[in-house]
């Protein structure tokens, strides 16, 4: 059985991460990737599954994503740039006529350099009360983001409600607005029918969270007078 | 130095071996081979570099391709469907050997190597050295082509299929396999009595395609 959820997160994170913050950063059971504008996070409450502290370079993350697409990953241990995973082997049982799971094997990946990022500090910003975070809506529609051109820019509806569109096309006098291209890249993290909760702070940062510990945060374009 | 040729071969082989019956990349005697039952790609490497015998499952092949693109591999050892490789980790003041072990994954053994002799002399004869393959790139994917009458070095190997052609090839299949070679690689073309067309370069890479045949 593949670790589809992990593989999906790694693929989205690999797409988002960019200099000056290359790689996927791990601390306290949390994996996160950012390019300085967007941030994707996955929290594992299991202290065994994702442990250690450090950074997975994009190269190591690609190898891990390939493994996760094929088999169940039992645990991931990150120590600096060193990544060790346990992957479940599989074999073809002629009697059963199907693929069956075997034992877990340790896969130690080569150490690729990747700079460390203060990921805990970055995540703290998403819950910092002094920044005025407020819950704006539960489970809104974000269909427009999928339909509009990636070159468009959008702003939040003035009174978003559950089940209704969250975004509208940007007006000239909007203070904060967002790129459809960026939103679309980050929102790929969530499944089509995922229940999303949306928060916003006074600087216009938007944060989408699901019930499985996945978060996508994005900073806005800001009107300068 | 990274092995980009191995990485490129693995990526092309991964695209080709997507039919479940032919999943995986066969390794034997230092040769890697993948097929979908219609086309075949192979890469003859040193048997000290690619050791052992077995199948590289698609997942391991994907991970191996990612690694081959980034690190120097000392050797790759295949045992059944388990793959071990030894790489060198470079530090500023030293390099260290690291063994990476991929667990075995379910993958049926397909003896693709049995088809390889049919693609090369004496079972196949040389058609042309270093022909031009521009038509394959210019034609539509849905087109079909046949060999020109007397192909010569530097001239076009294919022409669009004529209504009375007896043997012809799919542009889609040709394009898929010819990605194995770079634009300026010198490729030798062989054909056997069943019309199988094979392209081979000096680096040990081979692409073979089976033809469409007119039935009376």
List keywords for this structure.
heterodimer, A: 225 residues, alpha+beta, DNA Polymerase III, Chain A, domain 2, 2 domains, 11-stranded mixed beta sheet, 4-stranded antiparallel beta sheet, B: 2 domains, 15 strands
Explained architecture:
- The complex is a heterodimer of chains A (225) and B (216).
- Chain A has two domains: 4-117, DNA Polymerase III, Chain A, domain 2 (Roll); 126-222, no CATH class.
- Helices cover 20% and strands 37% of the residues of chain A.
- Chain A has five helices and 15 strands.
- Chain A has an eleven-stranded mixed sheet.
- Chain A is globular and about 65 Å long.
- The mean pLDDT of chain A is 90.
- Chain B has 216 residues and is an alpha+beta fold.
- Chain B folds into two domains: 4-116, DNA Polymerase III, subunit A, domain 2 (DNA Polymerase III, Chain A, domain 2, Roll); 121-213, no CATH class.
- Chain B has four helices and 15 strands.
- Chain A binds chain B through residues 59, 62-63, 66-67, 69-71, 87-92, 99-100, 102, 104-112, and chain B through 57-60, 62-63, 65-67, 70-71, 81-82, 87, 89, 98-108.
Mean pLDDT of chain B: 91
| H/E element sequence of chain A | HEEEEHEEEHEHEEEHEEEE
Number of strands of chain B: 15
The low-confidence runs of chain A, each spanning 5 or more residues with pLDDT under 50, are none
Rounded Rg of chain A? 19 Å
Euclidean distance between termini CA atoms of chain B: 54 Å
Determine the structural class of chain A based on helices, strands and strand pairing: alpha+beta
CATH superfamily label of the largest domain in chain B: DNA Polymerase III, subunit A, domain 2
Question: How many domains make up the 3D coordinates of chain B?
Answer: 2
β-strand number of chain A: 15
Tally the helices of chain B. 4
Q: What sort of overall outline of chain B do the alpha carbons produce when their principal axes are compared? A: elongated
Mean pLDDT of chain A: 90
Give the fraction of residues assigned to helices of chain B: 10-25%
């Amino acid at each position: 059985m593949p670790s589809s959820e992990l593989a999906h997160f790694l693929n989205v994170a690999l797409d988002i991460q960019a200099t000056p913050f290359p790689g996927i950063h791990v601390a306290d059971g949390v994996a996160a990737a950012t390019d300085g504008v967007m941030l994707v996070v996955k929290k594992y409450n299991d202290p065994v599954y994702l442990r250690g502290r450090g950074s997975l370079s994009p190269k190591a993350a690609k190898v891990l994503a390939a493994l996760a697409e094929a088999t169940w990953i039992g645990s991931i241990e990150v120590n600096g740039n060193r990544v060790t995973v346990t992957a479940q082997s599989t074999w073809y049982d002629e009697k059963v006529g199907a693929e069956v799971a075997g034992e877990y094997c340790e896969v130690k990946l080569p150490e690729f350099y990747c700079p460390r990022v203060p990921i805990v500090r970055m995540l703290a910003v998403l819950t910092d009360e002094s920044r005025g975070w407020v819950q704006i809506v539960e489970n809104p529609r974000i269909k427009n983001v999928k339909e509009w051109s990636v070159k468009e820019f959008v702003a939040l509806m003035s009174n978003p409600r559950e089940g209704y569109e969250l975004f509208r096309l940007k007006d000239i006098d909007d203070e904060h607005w967002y790129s459809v291209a960026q939103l679309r890249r980050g929102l790929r993290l969530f499944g089509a029918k995922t229940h999303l909760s949306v928060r916003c702070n006074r600087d216009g940062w938007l944060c989408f969270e699901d019930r499985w510990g996945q978060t996508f945060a994005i900073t806005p374009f800001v009107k300068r007078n | 130095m990274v092995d980009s040729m191995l990485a490129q071969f693995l990526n092309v082989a991964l695209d080709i071996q997507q039919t479940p019956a032919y999943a995986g990349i066969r390794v034997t005697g230092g040769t890697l081979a993948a097929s979908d039952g219609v086309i075949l790609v192979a890469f003859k490497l040193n048997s000290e570099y690619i050791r052992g015998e077995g199948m590289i499952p698609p997942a391991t092949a994907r991970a191996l391709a990612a690694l081959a693109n980034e690190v120097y591999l000392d050797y790759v050892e295949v045992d059944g469907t388990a793959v071990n490789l030894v790489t060198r980790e470079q530090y500023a003041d030293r390099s260290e050997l690291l063994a990476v072990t991929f667990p075995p994954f379910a993958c049926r053994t397909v003896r693709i190597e049995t088809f390889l002799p049919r693609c090369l002399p004496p079972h196949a004869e040389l058609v042309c050295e270093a022909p031009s393959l521009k038509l394959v790139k210019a034609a539509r994917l849905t087109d079909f082509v046949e060999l020109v009458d007397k192909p010569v070095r530097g001239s076009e190997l294919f022409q669009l299929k004529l209504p009375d052609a007896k043997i012809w090839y799919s542009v889609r299949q040709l394009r898929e396999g010819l990605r194995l070679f770079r634009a300026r690689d010198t490729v030798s073309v062989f054909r056997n009595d069943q019309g199988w067309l094979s392209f081979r370069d000096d680096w040990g890479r081979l692409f073979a395609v089976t033809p469409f045949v007119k039935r009376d």
